[in-house]
Amino acid sequence: MDNKKRTAIQLVATLIQNANFKGFFTGKISEAPTKSVCVPGLNCYSCPGAIGACPIGSLQSSLSGLHIRIPYYVVGLLIFFGVILGRLICGFLCPFGFLQDLIYMIPIFKKQRVRTFRGDGILRYLKYFILVICVLLIPSLVRFTPFFCKYICPSGTVSGILLAIADHKILAALGGQFIWKASVLGIILVMSIFIARPFCRYICPLGAFYGLFNKISIVRLKVNEETCTHCGACARCCPMAVDPSKNPDSAECIRCGKCVHECNGSLHLGFVKGDKK
Amino acid sequence: MKRRILQISLLFAAAALIVTGIIMGQPGEVLAKAAKICLECIGIG
After folding, report:
1. What are the strands, taking DSSP E only, across A68-130?
2. Which residues belong to CATH 3.30.70 in chain A?
3. Among residues A15, A151, A196, A221, which one has the fewest Cβ atoms lying within 10 Å of its Cβ?
């Protein structure tokens, strides 16, 4: 798919998920009933524009409450999104993924960009560790501690900045924890200039979860083995450093469609029937 | 074929989980959390 079309879809998806536009000026978040439904991507529910709930925040909230509640509803929604779309959500629908893509488009340090480096492969397992330990285990064991939201989530930090701009009381309340979170956000945003989607590659627990569905999701990459010449054009253009012709179902593939655009017609991204590769 | 069976099974499982959650009133709990500013999320709490 053409990169401009994807950018347009990402912009529309971000605007739809943050359609409470007046919140950006008043500093008040939406209380609409739509917030009982989780959005598929990472979009903090404390963002002044958010009209849906963050799935990771909702998951941790259920697990770290006064009594442990198995979050059937949130887990059901996550599995539903994963089975239908897999990590296409990361490539097209996630607002924080879109923010990283916009930063990566800045052309000033184009020559310094790196696709992969030594240790890149091992670092990618970090997101699974964060999913299990920070999102599931710690909130289940320590009451009222949504660890990922509290200490890591950069989407929440962006929300905090937007709220602080609109509401001076929130601005006055920012302290040490915010400095920590702002530092995490800053590192991720600076890294985004040089590496495509660093947060999605190494940290995002939502991407880790959806990646598990890339092998079986209904929307997948399909390789036509009869016409594929294994020229390597798809692997060279992949921002996530995946080789789609060899491993179209890789958990790292965010289904951005760049490979399909570069290919001679042997790759197809869309609804794939049955067991076709 | 195996993949198709797995897809359908997981979609049914997801639907069952969502319905169970709705019966238990979990969408209301999600709304209650999402309608208030999460202090931990924005870096205050």
Report:
1. none
2. 219-271
3. A15
